[in-house]
Amino acid sequence: MQAESYGDEMNISRFGKWAVAIAAGIGSIIGAAKSLHDVAEHLNGWHVLLTLSLLVLVVLGIDRAVEYVNHRFSTLNAAIETGLTKARESAGAFHGTAMQMLELAEKRLNDRIETLEDSINALLPSPASKTAHDEIQLPTVRPKIVPVRWGKTLDETGLIVRNDSEPAFSISIDGPVAIGEGTLDFRNTIYPGLTQSQGELLIEARIRLGNGTLTGGGALRDLMVQAKLDAVPLLIRYHDFEDREYSTNCEVVKEFLDDGLVVRLRRKENSHSTLSRPA
Questions:
Q1: Helix (H, G, I), strand (E, B), or coil: what is residue 155?
Q2: Nearest CA among 182, 256, 169 for reference residue 217
Q3: DSSP 163-209
Q4: 251: which residues sit within 8 A by CB, 6+ positions away?
Q5: pLDDT given at position 268
Q6: In angstroms, how far apart are the furthest CA atoms of the chain?
Q7: Hey, which of 183, 203, 211, 241 would disulfide with 176, CB 3.0 to 4.6 Å?
Q8: Per-residue pLDDT tens for 235-269?
Q9: pLDDT value at residue 82
Q10: How far is Cα 185 from Cα 148, in angstroms, rounded to an integer?
Q11: Distance between CA 162 and CA 216 in Å, rounded?
Q12: How many CB atoms lie within 10 A of CB 246?
């Protein structure tokens, strides 16, 4: 006889059930026989047979009750298992649907962002068109301040420039410029003007050393050597008669000729223009 237990349910084979019932019936009969032994002298054969029949019916009733209870528990467990299975399937389907909706929303958002970026890029001018536009804005007739050399006039040293075109006004050089522990600046911040016929103009330089000592532009090369710099960039600003501003980019380069310093125009990458209007 084999029996398996699942929670409150006990599943017993049909043979086992009958064996249990028969054993219970035999036990009941033996017990009844002992009880009837004392009163046997008062009972006839029919009484004994009736009593035994009733006992057998009671045993069979108990067996049916056990079978009914087992069936009810089996049905209940099957219903619970079915409900859990459906719940798992529904949860899995909901999770899959939610993930698909999130992926679709992310894709649509990325598409909108790309469309917006394309629209913005379409409104912005390309670098080539911007350069052409800036060149068109420069007047054909305009002042052109160009650096000549780093030199001295009388007792002063600085950047010497000339004007190769129309008169220039409010000439200045951006500063101060840091060079190691010192700084390079220019004494007269703004020069009133320079025409082509006036020739060269010295923009006087002043250098402040790291210890606070103020000296002339002649100390520039020594300061560059101490700072281990090969070049110092400078930006010259000036205006035309209509007060439009222009700028010239140049640099002072450390060399062994011309007192150890030469001046060069700085040319932008992919461009041959050295004069430009500031943005």
A1: coil
A2: 182
A3: ESSS-EEEEEE---EEETTEEEEESSS-EEEE-GGG-EEEEEEEEE-
A4: 231, 232, 233, 234, 263, 264, 266
A5: 46
A6: 164
A7: 183
A8: 999 999 999 999 999 999 998 765 689 999 886 43
A9: 84
A10: 18
A11: 21
A12: 20
Beta-carbon contacts of residue 97 (< 8 Å; ≥ 6 apart): none
Burial class (CB in 10 A: 0-12, 13-18, 19+), 272: exposed
Block residue for tokens 């006004």: 169
Q: Are 195 and 167 in contact (CB under 8 A)?
A: yes
Phi, psi of 40 (to 5 degrees): -60, -30
- Characterise 127 by phi-psi region: left (phi > 0), alpha (psi -120 to 50), beta (else): alpha
The single residue listed with the structure tokens 């939610």 is 98
Q: Where are the domains of the chain?
A: 3-120, 141-276
Query: What confidence tens digit (pLDDT) does each residue in 151-177 have?
Result: 888 888 999 999 999 999 999 999 899
User: What do you get for the CA distance between the two ends of the chain, in Å?
Assistant: 100
β-pair partners for 105? none
**For residue 5, how many other CB atoms are within 10 A of its CB?**
8
CA-CA distance, 35 to 147, in Å (whole number)? 139
Question: Other C-beta atoms within 10 Å of 186: how many?
Answer: 21
Helix axes 14-39, 45-123, angle to 10 degrees: 150
Residue 192, pLDDT > 60, answer yes
The residue that leads in pLDDT, 157 or 126, is: 157
Q: Is the peptide bond before 127 cis (omega within 30 degrees of 0)?
A: no
Residue located via tokens 């002063």: 156
Amino acid at position 245, single letter? E
Amino acid at 192: P
Comparing 79 with 41, the larger pLDDT belongs to 79
